[in-house]
């Protein structure tokens, strides 16, 4: 393992030594090119902006939208904000008032529904918006050639995002990415003791991951080769199958509307006539999702499902509110939120709790209501097909995506990657301007067993909570700054990942599955993924075998990846006991064929306190992208899924690879902006799809109403 890393580094070093002058020339040409493009693109941008404004006006006029008029009406008829009443938190609002609010929002929602219904968008491609950071300096301000030494600490998605942005910026920068893992480049697979490739957790890629999709395009990877098709996911409880999540981007009219009482057939023929196809149309959210609960929820009574409407209202209020409103929701637990908005106990216990346990890795009583609503909106409510998810088709995330990215950055951009190196201290100095500056990063190299130092002009801390705690504990200069010491105080969540190898193929209803409400989980969330179904063409590789060594009559059985989240109750169990719980209790209770299958091999990995925990009240402690801020410490930025992005906030939320990746771009863009006066190319960030009209109208209406109502359900 170490030999491969050192050869990669040696290659990088030698290319740096031999390619200096050519690279310098290339870079100068590049900078001149960027300068030209920057000027030209500003002119183009002005023209495009004018055309867009005009187009928007035409569209607004052409849109015979009575709901827009309604929204305007609400806005116009409301008194000015100066008339806003004082919010009396002690005062109770009657249910009639709440009903009025609901009615208003329902009208807005219905308005959105009506305006969208005939359009039948079926989006094969995700529509994205681009918002670039600004180029740091104008062409006139270019200063003399300077070499910058940037260090990125942590090589998860956040660190790779930062390393990519810094390396591709066009600056004359030496970028070093340091990680404690032996090989963060993904070149060397992690193997179990019996030589089978394993991975900590099975990761899904949801519909709105535009920046990871863009990465595939940049690397010349075919998304259909990297990812499986979008797949169904099933929920199993001790009572059996609870629900299945459909794939909306491939749904047919029959698959969603069969079983819808009374109106099912009418809707089918109506939609078929309008669209001339048997595909289920893209309806305004959450209409399609609500309809799909009829055929896809096996047990949960309709009345319980209907109680979800309270959560929709809370989501509109929270996500459309100011930062202050979001902080109020952040202090509340999701459990309290569900109680106050009258969600049924059964809806919470049978569906929301298991969903949160596998989505944010904690039960509702331990989660921030704000982050829960962000998650539910992003993954399930924003668009009908938001929950469509796909998986890695061959091998692992590391070898499918990280490895080609790492190879490209190392070969073409001279990125240096230091694996097996644990960062200890980041030292700061005070400059003449009174601002602090990180100047040195020290790390322990496990290969040489020595402490090393590296000088730096800027650092991106792309660490999770556990890594942050260890770095801040050994960095007294950083620990003096409240932003970092608060971030280091946040605790993480325990996770256990397992691989099970069976003697036969087991068929399941869907390849991705969730365990719900099983006693054997001991409070954890659980999932199981049928890797042989995700990766049927790589079965030999899943078993750690050479495909040519498989005999004609030999049939390899199922390989199942099982993850436990919030796994504190299982961490003290032995590996054997954990495997026994899975094979004797959980798997056969969900899918009875597991009872007949024989376990051939297994692997268990335990990861204590490593995953970001969005606990109630944690928002304020999560590290901001800007670290301590450009007025105090301009050259240390933060990246990772738990980072608050401020005015650069992205639509991807929760424990999410896309969010971590984007935060890396943004942290690097900000670092370059604050540390160089040279022209650089900020990394482009693709936005997720725009909010739908009915959501925007709901927010607008709610904000008007909330000028007069105290938000008595928050504190
Ligand atoms: C079991 C599991 C399942 C998941 N499923 C999904 C999913 O289905 N879809 C999805 O999008 N997301 C999923 N996620 C979440 C996703 O993987 C994370 O949000 C994302 O990987 C976070 O990236 P990051 O860069 O913020 O942090 P990390 O990936 O945690 O990276 C931090 C890095 O810092 C390094 N480090 C720590 N301390 C030091 C130190 N002192 N010196 C040097 N290096 C250090 C670590 O080795 C690590 O590589 C899952 C996560 C887990 C654990």
TrEMBL record:
Whose protein is this, by species? Thalassiosira oceanica (Marine diatom)
The GO molecular function terms of this record are:
oxidoreductase activity
Question: What is this protein's record name?
Answer: Amine oxidase domain-containing protein
The record's PANTHER family line, in alphabetical order, gives:
AMINE OXIDASE, PROTOPORPHYRINOGEN OXIDASE
Q: Specify the domain of life of the species encoding this protein.
A: Eukaryota
Domain Amine oxidase residues, every copy: 162-669
- The record lists the membrane-crossing segments as 93-117
User: Which Pfam families has this protein been placed in?
Assistant: Amino_oxidase
> Which UniProt keyword terms apply here?
Membrane, Transmembrane, Transmembrane helix
